Predict the 3D structure of the following.
Amino acid sequence: MLRHLFLFGLLLAASTASAQIIYQPVQYQYDGFYYGGDDPAMFAKAHRDSCAQAIVSLHRSVSNVPLPVYSDCLPWANAALYGMTPNDASNQAYRSVPRYFRKADLLFSAVWVDGALIVPARAPAVQRIEIKPFHRRSASTQPAVRPLLIIPRDMLLRPPPVQMVRVDQR
């Protein structure tokens, strides 16, 4: 009987366990191009260019064309033509990741996918502490706060108890 209770307690504890949390890695290598930024318009352009390059490579048997590298420093152009390498795209991607964060703050930007919390690599560190400016109020507009003494009414109506004092005589 004790073993069944232990097994039931173990199953109950396992069913109330929290979901799995997955922290995504930093991504800079995509299907057909390298990009270290996060501009959605640049992703659309890179996908269009990679599709056009795939069509050219299929029809003309061009296989030695390097993958394009895009950068936010040189927008709308293939930066590989100017000497940028995939390592440079990797460095740009890692530069945009927050360096100081608390995991509890990153969980606010997590997304539920199939029973697991997915935290993106570039999740903004959401601060839960709100800092407000302190405004000192002048004494003329606000009354001073003084301590308030409350005496029960029935204590005032009753006479104080008489205490007997014993005096030792020698």
